[in-house]
Design brief:
Elements (H helix, E strand, L loop, with lengths): L8 H18 L10 H7 L12 H4 L4 H14 L3 H29 L7 H14 L4 H5 L4 H22 L4 H6 L1
């Protein structure tokens, strides 16, 4: 794997292009109304109405991180739907950037595709970010649970890869 100083400016712009493509693709979804289970988990959730007790999300659900993120969303913006979509989109794009880093590093280790590793990682990640199946993670608000799961799975794989290939793996092993 090349050092950071060996990375070209063009390669440094690729994550920016991924973010821009994702923002452009999902910009029209920020005003999609609450759907299906969103009513139960957000609009009708009594725990969101009492943000004074931050322990409630952790004690009342099997998905405490999702509940806590919904509590923060509600505390900051009430039931303004665009805030929930913005968080979901942020999680989706963070997962995309993590996938890009994981693919770039993994493809770089394979002798046959080491030279086109960056464009190949970019193309695969762009397809993943923009694929129609991914719209559910942004537009259906309670799917934040799946988006967070995917993000943390990719982050775990990235950390594992870094621990396995790093000359100083200790900090990366702490994340896995």
């Amino acid at each position: 794997m090349r050092s950071f100083s060996e990375i070209s400016l063009r390669e440094l712009l690729l994550p920016v292009l991924l973010l821009a493509a994702g923002l452009l693709a999902y910009s029209n979804s920020l005003d999609v109304p609450f759907l299906f289970d969103d009513y139960y988990h957000i609009l009708e959730n009594p725990h969101l109405r009492r943000p004074s007790s931050l322990l409630i999300p952790f004690l009342s659900t099997a998905r405490p991180l999702v509940a806590f993120s919904l509590l923060l969303n509600y505390s900051l913006g009430g039931i303004q739907v665009w805030g929930y979509h913005a968080v979901n989109l942020s999680v989706h794009l963070a997962a995309g950037l993590t996938l890009f880093g994981l693919l770039w590093r993994t493809f770089g280790l394979l002798p046959r595709i080491a030279s086109p590793a960056v464009p190949l990682a970019f193309a695969v990640t762009l397809l993943w970010i923009l694929h129609p199946l991914q719209t559910q993670a942004v537009t259906y608000l309670i799917q934040r649970a799946e988006a967070l799961m995917g993000f943390f799975l990719l982050l775990t794989l990235y950390s594992l890869h870094r621990a396995a290939t790093s000359p100083q793996p200790r900090p990366w092993k702490l994340l896995t």
